[in-house]
Design brief:
The protein is built from 18 helices and eight strands. By secondary structure, it is mainly alpha-helical. The N and C termini lie far apart (about 135 Å). The radius of gyration is 33 Å and the shape is elongated. Strands 3-4-5-6 form a four-stranded mixed sheet, with helices on one face. Strands 1-2 form a two-stranded antiparallel ribbon. It has a two-stranded antiparallel ribbon with strand order 7-8.
C-alpha cells in the first residue's frame, strides 16, 4: 500500500491597499509645511517672550499676530503642492483617472492644509502652556484660535488652486510676498472698515471679539476657498454650485464690514480691580493682573509706611481704563508686559515705587516748575522712594553751569532737613505739602 502525499500550494497574500490620503499626509511637502507652521511662530514667539509670557490676553494677541506670516506661508505651500502635476507632466494622465477632479484636488490639498493647521495649533498650545505658570490673574482666551485655524486651512486650499492654474516655479514665493504685503496693507488704520476683512488684523490686549465675529471670519475665508475649489473642479452647469459658498462669503464679509469697530469691545475683566485696603493710599490692581497685588503692595510698602498718618492723600492708587477720579491717583503702569512686569514679576520695585511717588506729586502739567518747587519735590521723593537714577542726574548737574552745579547740594540739604524732622513735625509738613498737589505756583508749596 502506497501513500500519496499532496502538496498544498498557498496563494501569496494580496498586497495591502493603502488609502491615497495616507501617502499624501506622510510623504512629500505636507509634513514639511506642518513643521514650518510650527517652527515659524515658535521661534518668533520665543524671541519676544517678555512681551506676552504671563498674560493671557497678550498671548492671544501674539498668537493672532502670527497670521500675518502663516497665512502667506500656507498659501505658498499649497501653491507649491498644487503645481506638482504640471511640473511632473502628469496632469493629462491624472485626467483619465476614475476619481473626479474635485476628489483628486481635495485628496492632494487637504493633507497639507491639515498639517499646517496642526503645526499652528501645536505652537499655540506651547504658548499657552508657557504662559500658565506666570499668569497672575485673568483666564485664557481661545476665542480666535478656531477662526485662525479655518483661515489657515482655507489659505492652503486656495493656494493649491492657484498652483494648479499657474504652475510657474516662482509663483509660490510671489504668492507669499504678495499675501504678506496685502495683509499688512489692508490692516492699516487708513483702510477704513474694509480692514475688518483682514484675518490678520491686529487685536489689542484690552479688546475681545463679539460672540459671532470668529464664526463670520471663518465663513468669510472658508467660503472664498470653497468657491475657488468648486469653480476650478466642476464643469458645465455644476460650476454654478460655486455661487453658494461665494454668497455665504459675501454675506459674512458684508456683516464684518458693516459692523466695523463694533466687532470688538472692551474686555469686561479690565473694569474690575483687586485692592489692598490696609494701606493709605489704598492700592488697587487691575483684575486681569490681580495676582500681582502682593508684589505691588510690597514694592510700595516703604512709601505707604512713611505716609502713615499723613492727610490730604488720594484715597487709592487705581488701575483701570479711563483714568483716575478726583480722589484717586493712577498706579504706575504694569502693561505693556516686558517693561515693569516680566513673566509675572516686577522687574524693578525701586523704580516702580519712585514712579508711584511721582504720580502722588502730580506736577506733570506744570511744565518747568520753579527751582524751589523742584527742590522740595525732590526732597519728598527721595524721602519716600529715592530715584534709582538720582546719582546719574547729580553727576550730570555737576558738569553744567553754576545753577546746575548748585542744584545737587540744595537737594541734599533739603533731604537732610526733611529727614531730621521729628515724626509728628514731618507728618504735619507732609500734610501741608500734599494739600498743594497739582499746584504749579511756588507760593502754595510749604518751605523746607
Amino acid at each position: 500500500m502506497t501513500l500519496v502525499t499532496e502538496k498544498r500550494t498557498t496563494r501569496p497574500a494580496a498586497p495591502r491597499r493603502r488609502h491615497p490620503l495616507r501617502a499624501e499626509a506622510t510623504r512629500g511637502l505636507a509634513p514639511w509645511a506642518g513643521a514650518a507652521a510650527f517652527l515659524v511662530p515658535a521661534v518668533l514667539l520665543a524671541t519676544e517672550a517678555d512681551r506676552w509670557q504671563g498674560g493671557w490676553a497678550e498671548t492671544r494677541t501674539e498668537l493672532h499676530a502670527m497670521q500675518l506670516v502663516l497665512v502667506p506661508l500656507a498659501a505658498a505651500a499649497g501653491c507649491r503642492q498644487g503645481g506638482r502635476e504640471r511640473r511632473r507632466a502628469t496632469d493629462e494622465l491624472w485626467a483619465t483617472a476614475v476619481r473626479g477632479p474635485l476628489h483628486r484636488l481635495l485628496a492632494a490639498a487637504l493633507p497639507l492644509a491639515l498639517w499646517v493647521v496642526a503645526g499652528f495649533l501645536l505652537a499655540a498650545a506651547g504658548a499657552l502652556l508657557a504662559t500658565w505658570p506666570y499668569a497672575r490673574g485673568d483666564r485664557p482666551y481661545p476665542d480666535l484660535l478656531p477662526a485662525d485655524s479655518v483661515v489657515l486651512l482655507a489659505a492652503a486650499v486656495a493656494g493649491h488652486v492657484v498652483g494648479r492654474l499657474w504652475a510657474w516655479r516662482p509663483m509660490p514665493p510671489l504668492l507669499a510676498v504678495g499675501g504678506y504685503l496685502g495683509l499688512a496693507m489692508s490692516g492699516r488704520a487708513g483702510s477704513g472698515d474694509w480692514r475688518h476683512l483682514d484675518p490678520a488684523l491686529p487685536v489689542a490686549e484690552g479688546l475681545v471679539p463679539v460672540g459671532w465675529q470668529p464664526a463670520a471670519m471663518a465663513l468669510w475665508a472658508a467660503g472664498l476657498a470653497a468657491a475657488a475649489v468648486l469653480a476650478y473642479s466642476l464643469r458645465g452647469r455644476r460650476r454654478c454650485t460655486a455661487l453658494l459658498p461665494l454668497a455665504a462669503a459675501a454675506a459674512a464679509g458684508t456683516l464684518l464690514v458693516q459692523t466695523g469697530p463694533g466687532l470688538w469691545h472692551a474686555n469686561p475683566s479690565e473694569r474690575g480691580q483687586v485692592c489692598d485696603t490696609s494701606t493709605s493710599p489704598q492700592i488697587c490692581v487691575n483684575a486681569r493682573y490681580g495676582g500681582l497685588l502682593p508684589q505691588v503692595t510690597e514694592a510700595l510698602s516703604d512709601v505707604t509706611g512713611r505716609l502713615e498718618g499723613v492727610r490730604n492723600l488720594p484715597v487709592r492708587f487705581e488701575d483701570r481704563p479711563g483714568g483716575p477720579e478726583d480722589d484717586e491717583v493712577q498706579l504706575p503702569m504694569l502693561t505693556p508686559l516686558g517693561w515693569s512686569v516680566v513673566r509675572g514679576r516686577l522687574t524693578d520695585p525701586e523704580q516702580y515705587a519712585w514712579e508711584a511717588v511721582a504720580a502722588l506729586q502730580d506736577r506733570a502739567e506744570c511744565g518747568a516748575p520753579d527751582a524751589r518747587v523742584r527742590t522740595v519735590d525732590a526732597a519728598v521723593s527721595d524721602y519716600l522712594a529715592p530715584n534709582p537714577a538720582q546719582e546719574y542726574f547729580d553727576e550730570s548737574d555737576a558738569k553744567g553751569d553754576a545753577a546746575e552745579r548748585a542744584a545737587p547740594g540744595e537737594r541734599r540739604a533739603a533731604r537732610e532737613r526733611l529727614a531730621s524732622m521729628g515724626a509728628d513735625e514731618r507728618r504735619t509738613w507732609l500734610t501741608a505739602y500734599f494739600a498743594t498737589v497739582g499746584d504749579c505756583h511756588r507760593n502754595g508749596v510749604p518751605v523746607l
